[in-house]
Amino acid sequence: MAEAGIIAALYFALTMASIPISYMTPQVRLSEALCVLPFFTPSAIPGLFLGCLLSNLAGSPLGPYDIIFGSLATLAAAFAARYIRPKWLVPLPAVVINAFVVAAVLQYYLGILYWESVMWVAAGQAIACYALGLPLLLALERHKDRLFKRS
Predict the structure, then answer these.
(1) Predicted TM-score of the model (pTM)
(2) How many Cβ atoms sit within 10 Å of the Cβ of residue 16?
(3) Residues 6+ apart with CB under 8 A from 148
(4) What is the DSSP string of the chain?
(5) Burial category of 1 from C-beta neighbours within 10 Å (exposed 0-12, middle 13-18, buried 19 and up)
(6) HSE-CB for 6 with a 13 A CA cutoff
(7) How far apart are CA 142 and CA 77, in angstroms?
(8) Residues whose CB is less than 8 angstroms from the CB of residue 47 and which lie 6 or more positions away in sequence, other chains included
């Protein structure tokens, strides 16, 4: 439970520290780099969900649909990431699931064309999850035995 809390706090802190690019479109939510953590520990699943939920409650200008569906998208992506192999595919669920779910929320609230929004969200997620998250996964893998209990 403590590990999940630490991950939630990290997600929240990264999102709040980068508010100008964490919401709306285009967005690069830097905290989404943490989407690789379920590869190492199942406690990352509730941690990422809680961190996203708190971030959306604290800062999302898109209302309850973003709070609910954006957070559930992160939860679904975290579950999928836990079981994906090979390593280079671990960030993919966060890119794909958020692209489609967050795009729907953006279309509903802002009237942005859905497929245009899918592309913007996917691009931002790819930056966060692949340009930042995959190197994080590779760096953490070298120290996984010291950082994460066997799960």
Answers:
(1) 0.92
(2) 14
(3) 3, 40, 41
(4) -HHHHHHHHHHHHHHHHTHHHHSSSS---GGGGGGGGGGT-TTHHHHHHHHHHHHHHHH-TTHHHIIIIIHHHHHHHHHHHHH--SGGGTTHHHHHHHHHHHHHHHHHHH---HHHHHHHHHHHHHIIIIIIIHHHHHHHHTTHHHHS---
(5) exposed
(6) 8
(7) 24
(8) 3, 4, 5, 6, 7, 8, 11, 37
Q: Name the token pair of 101.
A: 């779910």
pLDDT digits (tens, 9 = 90+) for 62-109: 889 999 999 999 999 999 999 999 999 999 999 999 999 999 999 998
| pLDDT tens sequence across 96-114 | 999 999 999 999 988 999 9
Report which residue type is found at 142: R
Q: Tokens representing 148?
A: 């994460």
Domain-by-domain residue ranges, the chain?
A: 2-20+30-147
Give me 123's structure tokens: 């691009």
Compute the distance between CA of residue 149 and CA of residue 138 in angstroms, rounded to an integer. 17
Name the one residue in this structure whose structure tokens are 């079981």: 83
